Fold Carbohydrate sulfotransferase.
Amino acid sequence: MTKTQLFRLSVVLGSVFMILLIIVYWDNVGMAHFYLHTSFSRPHPLSTLPSVSQDEDHEDLSDMDEFLEKLLISSQKQKGLLNRKVEQTSPQSSSRPVLGNLEENVRGYDWSTRVARLSLDQEKLQAERRRTLREFCANSSFSFPTKERSFDDIPNYELNHLIVDDRHGIIYCYVPKVACTNWKRVMIVLSESLLDQGVPYQDPLDIPREHVHNSSTHLTFNKFWRRYGKFSRHLMKIKLKKYTKFLFVRDPFVRLISAFRSKFELENEDFYRRFAIPMLKLYSNHTSLPTSVSEAFRAGLKVSFPDFIQYLLDPRTEKMAPFNEHWRQVYRLCHPCQIDYDFVGKLETLNEDAAHLLQLLKVDRLLHFPPSYRNRTASSWEEDWFAKIPLAWRQQLYKLYEADFVLFGYPKPENLLKD
């Protein structure tokens, strides 16, 4: 046997040894439930994934990919029986709201019992939403920041909104102010990532709000680096190819109104110190401000909606730090031109879309989507809220959020953009 053959043999054996170590590590961290196929996910030709098609080296699964898939599918078969028993459990409905948080108390829930009517055209509607996304992502005449970069170009910290459920093969990109609290609750129940006295939660509304938004509760893509090191991107791409990926969106201007209402019209200590104080100083000429939000509210010192819009348009804002997630554009949170989403839901059709998605995922027997807020910010409020915003500001604001309007099929608000 020649030296070259010995060298090749040692490389192959070393690679197999490393892969086995990785698999053992997954088992240790509870990731052996690496479910690659769900009822709704479908094999994607790699050419349809912008994140994978940038380089021919990534177009076909490598030998390592194939080896991983065989081991992971084997793990899936071993765990299948247990999960079938779990999924036969009937969903438990809650008759009480989760109280204790000011925003939850102010908004309230709509507790009326009704079955969401499923449109016979749901599949057609989803196909149209995905087609719109693909067409504008491929349209060279329509451009916006970050559009042309590949999945590998996305910094790790920008992947923190992609929540993974390995038990059911689901990836959810959460968008704040688009029912994300309740979708996070659903993901916690499905992934069994949070226990109550040693038992996984079964009813989404039983999960306290403070746990829902605790980043340690969810497995997100940006945590892969700590777990898998240099294999993290490799594993992300396997999951993006095999798992069902979904997000929910909302009219961009209405989402801004909702963000303003919840973060600046309600007493929020963190947002007061981080955002309200700088806004009041910069745009309302206040030099001395209370240190606490309760004192400021008692003194009538609140950020106005024009202050908020001016803050968004101020070039200094982004230079200091990226937009807060509550008003950051969806294309920056979820990277729809780099990730081929299987399902695009909208808050405007939340009940129908949520019921349809849970059915497609075949988890509707496990849980129901929690009821929506009673006084959800309505699209019809736009004209009232923007009445005192100068026309030039409205036009600039549209350009700032234009990609979200176009990619997700929201009509241009012509009535707000002209005299």
